[in-house]
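I need you to check the entry underneath: sequence plus fold tokens. Let me know what the token row says about the fold.

>
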Amino acid sequence: MPQTKIQIVAKEKPKEEWGNGLEFLFSCISLSVGLGNIWRFPYIAFQNGGGTFVIPYLIALLVIGRPVYYLEISLGQFRGGGALRAFDLSPIFKGVAAGQVLATGASITYYSSIMALTLRFLLASFSSELPWSSCHDNWGDDCHDGSSPNVNATGKMSPAQLYFEREILHELPNIDNGLGLPNWQLVACLAAAWLIIGLVLIRGIKSSGKAAYFLGVFPYVVLLVLLLRAVTLPGAWDGIVYFFKPQWRELLNPLVWYAAVTQVFFSLAICFGTLITYASYNNFNRNVYNDILIITTMDSCSSIIAGCITFGILGNLARQTGVADIGSVVKGGAGLAFISYPEAIAKFEYVPQMFAVLFFLMLFVLGIGSTVGMGSCILRVIRDQFGKRAGPSWALAGGLATLGFAVSIVYMTPGGQFILNLVDFYGVSFTALILAIGELVAVAWFYGVRRFCADIKYMMGIETGWFWRICWAYVTPGLMSAVLLYTLFDMSALTYKGVAYPQVAHVFGCCLAAFGLLQLPGWALYAVYKRRKAGVSLWQRLCAACQPAESWGPANAQMPRD
């Protein structure tokens, strides 16, 4: 029986690589343990009933988060390229990677806007008295700071909430008459944020890898200090009990499961192409199994700590204002972190300004870790596709920063939070869930779990357990598909703090989602078209587009396939 001779030709060593394994580990921690945990997790948990959300979140973390994290790290390390190049394993699914990169582009715009808000608070923290620690005269009777216990506080708001909504955002009650003009102070902060993002991207992976030691450790110090303060506030335990105590009937609500699954995407930074990019700079034979367990465990702990801090503060606010229901003490929304955390810091007895500076510096540092990962993903895809024609790295990074800044200005308007919520739902969360299903189908069913596990063994020398195999093939895509279908059947019109959007906003959102999802058929048609040959039927071309491309192979060698 004739044997097939496999020729292995060494590939050129990639230009960029992590300095060592610790740089990769801490870079993944700073990417995954970022704004998705400290900023996004608390307000999503608050919107979905606290404890009612935590149970689906932990389940999703176990059977979706960890398996997908392992899959993407292994895929990126094996292929040694960006997200688009990784899908050479089944070119008909390259639209999954393209859609994920577009979702990453949408994410980086509003993550940078959160960094701008953080920088604005950071500057305000240097004042002799924290401006959100007491009521201002121009707020009238809407404010209650707890200094007058005999005053009826029902229906009043805390100084932190009023400061954020009226002094920082100048927030509109709705956007029926437009978004308003950008706030120049926030625009200046946004420019500073993008300048820092651009400079880190210009320096490349080696620079961000060194910075990751600080980016990955510093936030935990500040979080633990805030946690200790939050749990000692009067009424804090009422809020923490609300955070962990589920409303069992609401567990059947598909929208809660949808929120939990998409939050796992944000918490771990999976299904956006960023992990594939980071892993592509790894040593080919690095065993990342323990790294994955460490990162995902730290990520879930960070989210729970952030939730305890936020809900402990909400419990304190509920006691101060006389509100019995923790869920109605504030309106929620994407700005919840800028209400709850400052509220706790203002209650520090000694030098609250110092703790405010530390906290907002931490939040800004987390933003750098998240946005640099997203930016690296986008730049890697461009370099993979265009090579030297893409231009020098500094020009690419500078161009991305300039474009990102220009687009992000919309969030600096009085109606900016409405747009952030809209883009988050249509342009990121909804499309990310569909694309994640496509990713699992491409790897587990078209490329094949057995073949993928053989690649992992060739690369790391370890066997893949049955838990991972079953999750990749059945449990993970099955659960995500069920959540998607139930959500589509039970979906209602998107609102922001209970305020409806004008029709034109929904049209814009649908166009945003369509642009990301149309990458799937678009790239599939392109893959089939590229395989046109005389005498080859459409079916044969379709089958060929599902098989690994000729360029597919491990990062340390090129293995021609029959």
Observations:
- The two ends are 16 Å apart (CA to CA).
- Strands lie at 495-496, 499-500.
- The longest strand covers residues 495-496.
- The CA atoms of residues 47 and 444 lie 34 Å apart.
